[in-house]
Amino acid sequence: MSEVKGRRRIRILVAKPGLDGHDRGALVLIRAFRDAGMEVIYTGLFATPEQIAQTAVDEDVDVVALSHLNAAHMTLFPKVVEELKKRGGENIIVVGGGIIPPEDARILEEKYGITGNFGPGTPIKTIIDHIVERVRKERWKQP
Predict the structure, then answer these.
(1) What is the pLDDT of residues 6-38, one digit of tens each?
(2) Which H or E element spans position 51?
């Protein structure tokens, strides 16, 4: 599913920034991404935006998938984008998920380019399809 016309598999970094110790959803997504054929790297709990960005650049990922459930998404998610830019990773796609109110999701997308911002109960297929579509268009430049 994550391979398109001979391209390498999608490489995705799943990250739990800040002091959010709730990782059940992230662990479910990690397995789903792997089962969809993606190469998955997981930062573990309590990663800093700097650690996330450095790992993303070092591992040459296509996507950083951020998960946060305790209301610091408007601080931490933009900080990850800022840190990616500092390290030359501005072309890495960033998607979000967690407890994100619709107005915050709109700001994250419009101002920072962080799309998805999926909440609990979002079908896994919806998340995977979103990631594959963005990678095809933005990283692999396919229609």
Answers:
(1) 568 999 999 999 888 888 889 999 999 999 999
(2) helix 49-58
